[in-house]
Amino acid sequence: MKMVDVGAKPKTERVAVATALLRMLPATRERILAGKVEKGDVLAAARLAGIMAAKRTPDFIPLCHPIALSGVEVTLDAVKEGLSVRVTVRTVDRTGVEMEALTSACAAALTVYDMCKSVDRGMVLEAVQLEHKSGGRSGTWERGSAKDGAGATRAATSRPRKRAKG
User: Angle 109-14-138 (CA atoms, 0-180°, nearest 5)?
Assistant: First the structure.
């Protein structure tokens, strides 16, 4: 096991977007939106947790490179099923920020769970997924409607990866 050496790679702008869904009872969602949760402002705490998690991702993921983030945006929106989380992470560095975006989305959703578990222990965190990544040698990737893998499509701007010999 080893951490990949990215020292020879050029620094480029890299962006990743991840999402998550937190299913909950409609009454729980309404309580959050009305600001009537005992622990305080659930949405503000979740946004802050998401930002903090993105910054600390290498502390959770053993072989993840520590990188300088230039921006983290965490949004939570009410949806029929509960709350959706969307995170955009940016950097200018030698490696991507997919793990930071995914970790951030999880932390934001888990914070909502923690703050609301006394009223709805049945909440479900699901559909944590990468929606977009750009920058670096592999180019741009977008989650699409095509049934390629888990609904993923490679954007036309990406270059094919070299196949391993052997």
Answer: 110
Residue 77 has a CB neighbour count (10 Å cut-off) of 9
CA 103/CA 20 separation, integer angstroms? 10
What is the token pair recorded at 122? 């049945």
Residues 127 and 88 sit within 8 Å (Cβ to Cβ): no
Question: Residue for token digits 């050496």?
Answer: 5
Residue from 41, 114, 120, 148 carrying the catalytic annotation: 114
Q: How many other C-beta atoms can be found within 10 angstroms of the C-beta atom of residue 81?
A: 15
In tens, the pLDDT along 38-84 reads 999 999 999 999 999 999 999 999 999 999 999 999 999 999 999 99
Give the closest residue to 109 by CA, choosing from 46, 34, 41: 46
What is the reported pTM? Answer: 0.85
Tell me whether residue 114 is one of the annotated catalytic residues.
yes
